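Let's do one together. I've listed all components of the complex below, 223 residues spread over two lines.
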Amino acid sequence: DAGVTQSPTHLIKTRGQHVTLRCSPISGHKSVSWYQQVLGQGPQFIFQYYEKEERGRGNFPDRFSARQFPNYSSELNVNALLLGDSALYLCASSPARFGEQYFGPGTRLTVT
Amino acid sequence: DQQVKQNSPSLSVQEGRISILNCDYTNSMFDYFLWYKKYPAEGPTFLISISSIRDKNEDGRFTVFLNKSAKHLSLHIVPSQPGDSAVYFCAASVTGNQFYFGTGTSLTVIP
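Okay, and this is what the predicted structure of the assembly comes out as:
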């Protein structure tokens, strides 16, 4: 069975630009969560979506937004990129709203 | 404020011996805990979980212990194998959906 997939793998953007990251959960999983991991730190929670509704939001500015589609895939959008947004963005899926989460390989975003 | 802490950035263990990775947390409301293993250029891989109603959970070579009064959990790997060399993260949650991660411990198993 395919695991969580994310696209693109790597991305380079300029300050002020907008970026969209994509995630496809494991088949049958209805929950998708997004995390940001900067070098030397653990993943930091950004959003959780379950059944296409936002179920949790971490301490991130409104420049970060997300949505979940009817097929349970998800997009993370970041507007007005800052240098500090450079990080590995991880998507995790789970079969239910609560419980263990299974991560994709991540998207490495570099903002110059 | 770091609610989940892994105070040992690195750990080296001989192959065949026990690896013990530690994790401390500050929020007494945390009631569900996970351990992940991460190789370079890959996403974290789920290893084992434990809820606050238990103090121990085993899965093969991996055992997680939870001490709620001390707000401490540990992951034991017995016996350690070279393929276990990776960064290990603990994560904690109040609701089971929003997880707080530690900063990770890099485990090296020496053949």
